[in-house]
Fold this sequence. Notes:
This protein has 10 helices and no strands.
Amino acid sequence: MTNESKELILNDFDNNIYIKNDFDNFLELREKKENSIMYTKEQKKELLIEFVKLNKRLPIGKEDYKLCHIGPFYQKLKFEIYEDNELYNYFSDYPLIIEGFDNYLEEKGIRDENITYTFDQKINLLIEYVNKNEKIPGYRTIYKDCNIGGFYYRYRKKIDSTEHEVYQKFINNIYIKNDFDDYLKTLNN
């Protein structure tokens, strides 16, 4: 905004001090935003460490530190931590941050203590669960540290007919076959 246009607007607001003050505040905030610092992810990680060392706590959701939105950055990191073990290792010297990550992972039921299952192992766990419990798992069902419920429902979405290979793979299990049949009925209606 040019100085001339600011002067024209300010002249119109001279009669109303409240509008003039609000406009001044708006211009000040806009200028701060234009002059704000753009941090890289690495710089933000260093600022997070610095923040935790200084305050001896984790940032809350909307907290800022050195003109950086450190709270939202930390929240975003928590979502990334499951897929990025290097990120977890990066913060391993800072127990408060690791504790926060662990709490998040435990709360979400994601932490699997580095157990990773192959596709075939997940199918075997699913069949084992269904045969043992005589029912289909719920969407959030964890069995032997594996989210077989989420796996099952993502896998089930792939079928569109009784000829589909996914359907054929489970035709011998009555519980899964019945669930697939019910699912196909809802697709056709």
